[in-house]
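Hello Y.,

Per our agreement to keep a running log of every chain we model this quarter, I'm adding this entry. I've kept the format consistent with earlier entries: sequence first, then predicted structure.
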Amino acid sequence: MRPKPKPGFLLVAAREWRWLLHDRAALILIFGVPLFAFVVLTAVFSHPVIRGLGVAVVDEDRSETSRAFVEQVAASPSLSIVERDGDLASAARAIRSGDAIAAVYIPANFESDAPKSSPSTTSSTSRPPVSPPQA
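Predicted structure for the entry above:
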């Protein structure tokens, strides 16, 4: 007849540790999975700044103010201009083809509206969400 196990935290911990050493699946679940998740998440979030996103610029104003605005967009480390001085149709093609993720449209009256206190209309476009096929 086996003696009754003695109560106590250290005895229970030692018994569980012996059980854990004999069960490979439990070892992997307790130590391997969290370690793997830590490595994957560290790799994913180690470079949080996204750089080099392609942008198509449509400048219909072609003034000094619009050129300065485009230079400011080009100076951003997270954006790179992939197409310039096209029309909205070519900007849309660049977005659909994957060359650009967005388009910046500068209207013809950009410079004349800039000194005013009311904001000028400047629009940007990005890839539309993919919708499921209609049945």
